[in-house]
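Each lists chain and fold; for instance:
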Amino acid sequence: MTTRAEVLVGTAAAAPAYGPARRPFVSARTRELLALLATGTLLVGAVLFYVFQHIQVVRLGYEVERLRGERSALVEQGRALTLEAARLRAVKRVEEVARGELGMVAPAPGQIVVVR
């Protein structure tokens, strides 16, 4: 009777030899070219990312300046509207409009009734 170890040793010895060392699936030159290609791709990707970021910063800078100008114009418009509102609310002007355009007159002393 043969033991398991003998069977394993026997089959290993009976296996045919494939001859000299097999050629690698990918040659050393191909591996170097692939490494160079991967490095170049990473480098180009990094440069493109940097350029994209720089373009975004410049574009946003222009946008910020445009919005600052728009804000300044709106602040100035707000000041002008506040001034116009104050001018329109002036008592003298309201009285002129009431008398001239609406035909109102000042009340006589007996027409005023004070309610408490």
User: Anything to note?
Assistant: The CA atoms of residues 82 and 112 lie 34 Å apart. The chain has a mean pLDDT of 87. The two ends are 130 Å apart (CA to CA). DSSP finds three helices and no strands in the chain.
